[in-house]
From TrEMBL, chain A:
This is NADH-quinone oxidoreductase subunit K. The lineage of its organism: Bacteria, Bacillati, Bacillota, Bacilli, Bacillales. One of its GO terms (cellular component) is plasma membrane. It catalyses: a quinone + NADH + 5 H(+)(in) = a quinol + NAD(+) + 4 H(+)(out). One of its GO terms (molecular function) is quinone binding. The keyword Transmembrane helix applies. Its main location: membrane. Its EC number is 7.1.1.-. Belongs to the complex I subunit 4L family. Gene3D superfamilies: 1.10.287.3510. NDH-1 shuttles electrons from NADH, via FMN and iron-sulfur (Fe-S) centers, to quinones in the respiratory chain. The immediate electron acceptor for the enzyme in this species is believed to be a menaquinone. Couples the redox reaction to proton translocation (for every two electrons transferred, four hydrogen ions are translocated across the cytoplasmic membrane), and thus conserves the redox energy in a proton gradient. The keyword Transmembrane helix applies. Keywords: Cell membrane, Membrane, NAD, Quinone, Translocase, Transmembrane, Transmembrane helix, Transport.
From TrEMBL, chain B:
This is NADH-quinone oxidoreductase subunit L. The keyword ATP-binding does not apply. Belongs to the CPA3 antiporters (TC 2.A.63) subunit A family. Signal peptide: none annotated. Coiled coil: none annotated. It is a multi-pass membrane protein.
Length: 104, 621
């Protein structure tokens, strides 16, 4: 049985993280930004799973952590979308460029 | 009494301070303040002089600064020369203060005028009292400032402004040399004190080349201040100032400061034959050079200005011929008769409102007081026997002859002839003959102006008797008393010199009378025969033009180059730096736009930089 080496997992996670980061920093639509953040989160999950098999002390802990993270992420997305809807109701837009209240 | 000599310069200083602060408020009372305070300093000076007859030199000093091993002191000294100068300066200053009351009547800036006069008198008296070179230098520059302010008193006239600047800059050129000479002496001697400088000169601790060098550098400072060739051309231009100022500063006191400095430093000069020779040659050349220009000038004050330059040349010639007494004696008599001439000229100008002698004439009958007074001054400066100028000029000629300068002696004789000629030319053109201008409204000046002239006329006649070959050289014996370096109190010379000097001055007067009064010789006789020579003299030997095309042009080209350097290189560099900083800050402010995404980018880039640094350095930064 040919095994996939850890470098492949880590490269995948890295690529995924970079795509997520790029999306989070450049996209104008808030929904896309949230989705990009999910990508980054899941890149982290891949790392957790990969190290649970190939780490110094392989055990099930990493996979449990990944499951936790998915659950927490689901909750977080729910909250994020709720905030987004609240903003949309106020500002009638989901364009990130319009949200510059930090400047003031 | 002499321990109170320090108070003498403080009176005029007080006058300056009071008038500069309260002058506007007091208005017409300002002249009285100035007169009162300068009179006080004259009285104290007189008492000090009398006290100096009885007592030895008084000197008081306090430590001013200690730098390393060297100690700089400040204080005052009353020796023979100082005491004499104090009286001359304070007396002429007081008389000029009094005269100005009439001359400047109605000028709304009269209080400013008096405050400047106070400042100048303070500086001049301080200069005279200084016991060391450094203090002398400080007052030397202050005197220059006073002169600058007073020449430029009518600052709304372009010529006055230019003349003030010219006077200041040209004397500064000499001052730089003086400063270098001073520093060299300090380097060699380790002190600015006159006494210590003279002591090490006579002890021979300074090499003779160094003595010559420093003496000549100091002499260049004196050349600038005393209007000697080649730094003379500021003095005639300085006549743009009010006439009382010309009498005080540019005839009697400040321009004599150069002569005074050489006289004070005389032991240093006497130690170097080359330095003495330089002084004598420059003096003799200036005497004849300025006298020849004086022959053709058409402005009453300019004739007097060139005569001042010429007479200062005589003094330098005397000092350079080891005639210390002769130089100081001529300085004294010249102060009186030249101040008298300037005040009388001011009185004429006051009456006819012009300075052009071609527009005067026939004033003898109109100005019954000024005329005779001017005549007294003219006789004195021409060296007519029995007046003061005769004795002092005779002393100079004797000193030159005895010292063996035959050529310089001849130059001096010719200059004396020219002096008599141009002074009487001036006198006949102004007072003799028929009126050539409108003289109907001419009125004699008020008493406040004529009284000072009477005092000066008295001195111009009798001041010579303090040092004559007939009644004993009282001044000379006193001046050189107890100081062998200054030479003898009286120099014995052949008797024919006195006869020759008399003959020459009478000849000059006779020639002027023939040409300008009897008109038996045409005025154009010489100028039409030698037009180029006339033109050369009339244009003052093109000295100003020469300076304009060499020094001024060179300086302006240099300043243009410097300006280009400034604009392109210095300002360019500064603009580059500011542009870089501005750009950086603009970038910074663009980052802070309230966008979470931008902040995220910055944070991520920062992290990336940190990681890269960590990777490159292995974590050991």
């Amino acid at each position: 049985m040919s095994t996939v080496p850890i470098s492949a997992y880590l490269t995948l996670a890295l690529v995924l993280f970079c795509i997520g980061l790029y999306g989070a920093l450049t996209k104008r639509n808030t929904v896309i930004v949230l989705i990009s953040i999910e990508l980054m989160l899941n890149a982290g999950n891949i790392n957790l799973v990969a190290f649970s098999k190939f780490g110094m002390m392989p055990s099930i802990d990493g996979q449990v952590f990944a499951l936790f993270a998915i659950a927490v992420a689901a909750a977080e997305v729910a909250v994020g979308l709720a905030i987004l809807i609240a903003i949309y109701r106020n500002r009638k837009t989901v364009n990130v460029d319009e949200f510059d209240a930090l400047k003031h | 009494m002499m321990e109170f000599a320090w108070i003498i310069p403080l009176f005029p200083l007080l006058s300056f301070l009071l008038l500069i602060v309260y002058g506007k408020k007091w208005g017409s009372a300002a002249p009285y303040i100035g007169m009162l305070l300068t009179f006080a300093s004259f009285i104290v000076s007189l008492l000090v002089l009398v006290a100096r007859f009885e007592n030895p030199t008084y000197k008081a000093e306090a430590t001013w600064l200690t730098i390393g091993d060297a100690t700089l002191t400040a204080g005052f000294e009353v020796n023979q020369l100082n005491a004499l100068m104090l009286v001359i300066v304070s007396l002429v200053s007081f008389l000029v203060h009094m005269y100005s009351k009439g001359y400047m009547q109605g000028d709304e800036r009269i209080s400013v005028f008096y405050s400047y006069l106070g400042l100048f008198t303070f500086a001049m008296l301080g200069l005279v009292l200084s016991p060391n070179l450094l203090q002398t230098y400080i007052f030397w520059e202050l005197v220059g400032v006073g002169s600058f302010l007073l020449i430029g008193f009518y600052f709304y006239k372009e010529e006055a402004k230019a003349a003030a600047k010219k006077a200041f800059i040209m004397t500064r050129i000499g001052d730089v040399a003086l400063f270098i000479g001073m520093i060299l002496l300090f380097w060699q001697v380790g002190s600015f004190e006159y006494d210590e400088i003279f002591a090490s000169v006579s002890a021979g601790t300074i090499s003779s080349e160094m003595i010559t060098l420093t003496a000549i550098l100091i002499f260049i400072g004196a050349v600038g201040k005393s209007g000697q060739f080649p730094l003379h051309s500021w003095l005639p231009d300085a006549m743009e100032g009010p006439t009382p100022v010309s009498a005080l500063i540019h005839a009697a006191t400040m321009v004599a400061a150069g002569v005074y400095l050489v006289a004070t430093m005389f032991p240093v000069f006497a130690a170097s034959e080359a330095a003495l020779m330089t002084v004598a040659i420059v003096g003799a050349f200036t005497a004849i050079f300025a006298a020849s220009i004086g022959l053709v000038q058409k402005d009453i004050k300019r004739v007097l200005a060139y005569s001042t330059v010429s007479q200062l040349g005589f003094m330098m010639l005397a000092l350079g011929s080891a005639g210390y007494v002769a130089g100081v004696f001529h300085l004294t008599t010249h102060a009186f008769f030249k101040a008298l001439l300037f005040l009388a000229a001011g009185s004429v100008i006051h009456a006819v409102h012009t300075q052009d002698i071609e527009k005067m004439g026939g004033l003898w009958k109109k100005l019954r007081l000024t005329g005779p007074l001017f005549l007294i001054g003219t006789l004195a400066i021409s060296g007519v026997p029995l007046l003061s100028g005769f004795f002092s000029k005779d002393e100079i000629l004797v000193a030159t002859w005895v010292h063996g300068h035959t050529i310089l002696f001849l130059l001096a004789i010719i200059a004396a002839f020219m002096t008599a000629f141009y002074m009487f030319r001036l006198f006949f053109l102004v007072f003799g003959g028929e009126a050539r201008g409108d003289t109907n409204h001419v009125k004699e000046s008020p008493n406040v102006m004529t009284v000072p002239m009477w005092v000066l006329a008295f001195l111009a006649i009798f001041a010579g008797y303090i040092n004559t070959p007939w009644f004993g050289s009282f001044l000379g014996d006193w001046l050189t008393d107890g100081n062998a370096a200054l030479g003898h109190g009286h120099i014995e010379g052949p008797i024919w010199i006195m006869g020759l000097a008399t003959a020459v001055s009478l000849l000059g007067i006779a020639l002027a009378w023939l040409i300008y009064s009897r008109k038996s010789l045409s005025r154009d006789w010489l100028s039409s025969r030698a037009p180029y020579a006339y033109q050369l003299v009339n244009k003052k030997y093109y000295i100003d033009e020469f300076y304009h095309f060499t020094v001024v042009k060179a300086a302006s080209i240099l300043s243009r180059v410097a300006r280009l350097f400034e604009v392109i290189i210095v300002e360019g560099l500064i603009k580059l730096i500011t542009a870089f900083i501005t750009g950086l800050s603009k970038l910074g402010s663009r980052m802070q736009d309230g966008q979470v995404q931008t902040y995220g980018t910055v944070a991520f880039l920062g992290l990336a930089v940190l990681v890269i640094v960590l990777a490159l350095t292995g974590g050991y930064l």
